[in-house]
Every structure is written in C-alpha cells, then in structure tokens.
Design goal:
Elements: E1 3-12, E2 32-40, E3 45-52, H1 57-67, H2 76-80, H3 83-91, H4 104-125, H5 129-134, H6 138-142, H7 156-165, H8 170-180, E4 182-190, H9 196-208, E5 213-217, H10 222-236, E6 241-245, H11 252-262, E7 269-271, H12 279-289, E8 293-296, H13 303-311, E9 317-318, H14 328-341, H15 354-370, E10 378-380, E11 393-395, E12 398-400, H16 413-419
Parallel strand pairs: 4-5, 4-10, 5-6, 6-7, 7-8, 8-9
Antiparallel strand pairs: 1-2, 2-3, 4-12, 11-12
This protein binds 6-deoxy-L-galactonic acid and magnesium ion.
6-deoxy-L-galactonic acid binds near residues 23 and 53.
C-alpha cells in the first residue's frame, strides 16, 4: 500500500459560545482540529488530528503540509517495518527541524501525521489501535521508539524488561477491560465559565451517569474558587475524588500560597500550577504543598521534558497528551519512563478528539506497561463525540474498549464540512451537543 496524497483541513467548533472548555488561562476556547487524511493507492485511508483551541489552527495545517512530502510515495510496510526509523525521519528533516525541534507547532503537526499513520496501520490490520499495540511483542514495541535523549533515564533493555514482565498476564487484563472498561474522571462540570447553577446541574447529571472523579478549574479569583469548590464538594461529597486545574496562571510562590487556601477541599492534585516548562518550579511547588500532588503534561512538549519532570520530582501525575507529544511512538517511551519512575499516567483529554485517543492509550498502558489501576484515571469531557464516525462508549464512568479498526479519530464527513473554517465565516452551533 503506497501513500499517494495527504490532505489537511482546519476544523473549528464554536465551543466558546457555551464556554465549554473554559479555564483561567483560556476563557474562550473554540475546540479545533487540524485534521489529516492519508490517502493511499488502495481503499484504506488513515485519519489523524492535532488539537488546538481556535486561532492558530491554520498554522498546524500549514505545518502538516510541510511534513507531507516526507511521507508521500512511501509504502505503509516500509514504515511499519521500522517504526523508530520512520519517527526519526518525520521529526528529523534536516531543514524543517530548525522550526522545532520536537516542540511547538511543528510537533503538533507531527502528532497529527503520526496519529494518522497509526490509524492507517491499525485499519490495515483490522484492529482497534489499543489491540494492535497490545498484540505487539515487547521487541516490536521497543522497536517503535526513538530513544535518543532519554537513555540516561530508560534504556531499550529496561523498556524491554518492563514489557516482558507483563507479557504472561496481558490476556487477563484484556479480558478485564472488555468486561469492566477503563476508569475515568470528568472535567465537564468544572469549566470556569459555567454558572454555579450549571456546575450543580452538571455534577448531578454526571454522577447519575456513574462518575465519582471530578476536576474543577481554578485560578481566576480565590474567593470565586472557594465558593465553587464548596459547591462541588456539596454535590459530589467527600468520598469522590476532586482535582484542580489552574492552566498555568500562577508564579511558583503564588501557586503555593493559593493552594494553601484551597487545601481544605482536599484536592488529589493541582494541575499546571505554573509555566509548563518550569521543571524546578513544579518540584518546588510539589514539595511545599504535599500531600497534594502536582500534575502536568498537556503542554509538556516532548519526552525530554517529561524525563526532566520525572527525574526532578516535578510531577506526581503524568498527563501526557496524544496530540502534544509526537504521536504514539513518543507516547510509548513516556509511558515506559513513568512506569520506571513509579508515576501514574492519567492522560489529558479536555479537547476535541482527545478522549477518542486516550481510551486506546490508557488501555495499552494498563495491559502492557503499568499493569495496575491504582491512581490511574483517564480524563473524560463530554463534548463533540457525535462528530466522530465511531463515537466512544462510556459505561458508569468507564471507557469501554473500542472495537472498530483504527485510532477512533475519523470524523463524519458532515461534521468536517459544517465546521471547516473558511477564514472569518461565522461559526454556527447547529450540531453541537
Ligand atoms: C482549553 C481547554 O479546554 C483546557 O481547559 C483543557 O484542556 C484542560 O486543561 C484539561 O485539563 O482538560
Ligand atoms: Mg488541564
């Protein structure tokens, strides 16, 4: 199967009109996707996306177009027979890498393209991505990883040993996941722009649908946060898990002060308390506010940053992002590092398409890498799932393993047409849920 053409589309949903997804740093996000399709000389196509929140999505589309020549003309087999080599090829173009390397817009674009390649691969094998990965041998998984820059934290042999140790029990966990699903937490009650009334109504609705783990946005105004945290605790009680997310608004010492005032609400973690690049700042905050944990990852741009966060105790919960890291290959090595450092992976999913992706990733993590559910909950937010051809299935707050071949991010043609951004055209809310 030969890759013949790659298309990229700028898709934007007007979520800012209902303040879905709003937080202290991003008060008006329009959930958006730079949406890639890999066309082949056969009937199969691979679809992938990277997530943005509106303006700037066009930059990702342009960056995807710059990466496309690295793939066109290649056979799928030439890629899947050397996944690590393919990944280095995509991230290592001798001129293009200057606008990264492995960070920012170009890395978001890498992620969309790499995600689309894995979608095509999974479709060609007739399996959902989590199953494709879970059926791979430890050697094949390690063979998909570019270990450059992280061998001081994890070697290929150590990664192999982790995967081999879980081999004998993989099938048990596959059966358990098919029966019970993977646990999640939800952000859909706690968006910052929601009224108190809506916060209460959302909590009630989500609890009735099975959730007991909730995240609330904080960081705009302390008194306001105290009031909202009281409300959410009134609604969810004290046995449910509560998490907080500041989306990078504080300085380091300010984060410590602020969290002292919110400690009475017993958060499990505070997410993104400060700049996503400040490894030592996170470590300082974590030390000062323990036992409240520090979580980060949605803007942790590559495996090298994750390595430093783990080495420096800068995070206690790893929220890797399926569209921020350079796709599945880079995610694999971050999961393996997290396992070695004893850090739970709770992937970020507040955005369009991210829930569709993380279900596969968390299933793989449990089946092949972590082999435990302790402190593992994947994020879930309620928006835009109807736009996908194979919408995810939640049962009692748990992600049920997808059955359809691929990586679940193929969007319906109608949604793509309706929400394609044509530069200045007003967005509509017609088919939003
Ligand atoms: C703008 C977005 O909705 C963010 O608020 C969201 O990704 C959030 O940080 C999250 O953790 O889900
Ligand atoms: Mg967040």
């Amino acid at each position: 199967m030969i890759i013949t053409r790659i298309t990229a589309r700028d898709i934007r949903f007007p979520t800012s009109q209902t303040l879905d997804g709003s937080d202290a740093m991003n008060p008006d996000p329009d959930y958006s996707a730079a949406y890639v399709t890999i066309h082949t000389d056969g009937p199969l196509k691979g679809d992938g996306l990277t997530f943005t929140i509106g303006r700037g999505n066009e930059l990702c589309v342009a960056a995807i177009e710059s990466l496309a020549p690295l793939l066109i003309g290649r056979s799928l087999e030439s890629i899947t027979s050397d996944m690590a080599g393919f990944w280095r090829h995509i991230t290592g173009d001798s001129q293009l890498r200057w606008v990264g390397p492995e960070k920012g817009v170009i890395h978001l674009a890498t992620s969309a393209v790499v995600n689309a390649v894995w979608d095509l691969y999974a479709k060609s094998e007739g399996k959902p991505l989590w199953k494709l990965l879970s059926d791979m041998t430890p050697e094949q998984i390690v063979g998909a990883i570019d270990f450059r820059y992280v061998t001081d934290a994890i070697t290929p042999d150590e990664a192999l040993a982790i995967l081999q140790a879980n081999m004998a029990t993989r099938e048990q966990r596959v059966a358990e996941m098919i029966r019970d699903g993977y646990p999640s937490y939800t952000t859909s009650a706690g968006w910052l722009g929601y009224s108190d009334q809506k916060l209460r109504a959302q909590c009630r609705d989500l609890m009735s649908r099975g959730w007991s783990n909730f995240k609330i946005k904080v960081g705009r105004d302390l008194q306001d946060d105290i009031r909202r945290c009281k409300i959410i605790r009134e609604e969810i009680g004290w046995d449910s898990r509560l998490m907080m997310d500041a989306n990078q608004v504080w300085d380091v010492d300010q984060a410590v002060e602020y969290m002292k005032s919110l400690a009475e609400f017993k958060p499990w973690f505070i997410e993104e308390p400060t700049s996503p690049d400040d490894v030592l700042g996170h470590a300082k905050i974590a030390k000062a506010i323990a036992p409240i944990k520090v979580a980060t990852g949605e803007m942790c741009q590559n495996r090298v940053m994750f390595k430093q966060f783990m080495q420096a105790d800068g995070l206690q919960v790893c929220q890797l992002d399926s569209c921020r890291l350079g796709g599945v290959n880079e995610i694999l090595v971050v999961m393996l590092m997290a396992k070695k450092f004893g850090i739970p992976v709770c992937p970020h999913a507040g955005g369009v398409g991210l829930c569709e992706y993380v279900q596969h990733l968390s299933l793989f993590d449990y089946i092949c890498v972590s082999a435990t559910l302790e402190d593992r909950i994947a994020e879930y937010s309620d928006h835009l799932h109807d736009c996908f051809v194979h919408p995810l299935v939640m049962q009692d707050g748990r992600y049920m393993p997808p059955q359809d071949p691929g990586y679940s991010a193929t969007m319906k043609a109608e949604a793509l047409d309706e929400f394609e951004f044509k530069g200045g055209t007003p967005l509509t809310t017609a088919s939003l849920n």
